[in-house]
Amino acid sequence: MDAKAEFNNRYAFFSEITGLAMKVHSKYHYGLLESAYEAALKYLLEQNGHEVSQQESLPIYWEDVKLDHTYRMDLVVDGNIIIELKAIAHIDTQHRRQLWNYLNLTHIEYGMLINFSPTGLYSEWYRRNPETGNIDRIKLL
């Protein structure tokens, strides 16, 4: 297998999840609350054999002390992909930072930002490097 095909095969799960999100967007279009898209995508992911946690709690700690604040991750797929969903006109840096913070706080390797926008489905794919902690955007070749 050539390098391009190997790279694309390694990240095929991003394409699979994006395809399922496109099915949801095609059925519901734009205008629903984020929670409706979330429920539908969770259902399709589970129908495709994935284990999915919805609105998974992410507590915040100061050193070893658990603080009185908890984030909620929209979907966590197979324990190694965080999906942050939006239903807004356009994605901005603050939306990306939310996902990046989740990746850093959990040390989960992969993340997806999916927006059910008025102009169509939009998705970005990320990988957190376990050695450096850097978060890189993934684009299929």
Task: Explain how this protein is built.
This protein is an alpha+beta fold and 141 residues long. The protein has one domain: 3-Layer(aba) Sandwich (Trna Endonuclease, Chain: A, domain 1), CATH 3.40.1350. The chain is built from four helices and six strands; from the N terminus they run αααβββαβββ. The protein has helices at residues 3-10, 12-28, 34-47, 93-106, and strands spanning 52-62, 65-77, 81-86, 110-117, 120-128, 135-138. A six-stranded mixed β-sheet has the order 1-2-3-4-5-6, sandwiched between helices. Helix 2 crosses helix 3.
Explain briefly what this protein structure is.
This protein is an alpha+beta fold and 141 residues long.
Entry keywords:
141 residues; Trna Endonuclease, Chain: A, domain 1; globular
Question: What is the helix/strand order?
Answer: HHHEEEHEEE
Instruction: State the end-to-end distance.
Output: 14 Å
Number of strands: 6
Largest sheet: 6 strands, mixed
Which residues sit in consecutive blocks of at least 5 with pLDDT less than 50? none
In one word, what is the shape? globular
Number of helical elements: 4
Structural class by sheet pairing and helices: alpha+beta
CATH class annotation:
Alpha Beta
Topology-level CATH name = Trna Endonuclease, Chain: A, domain 1
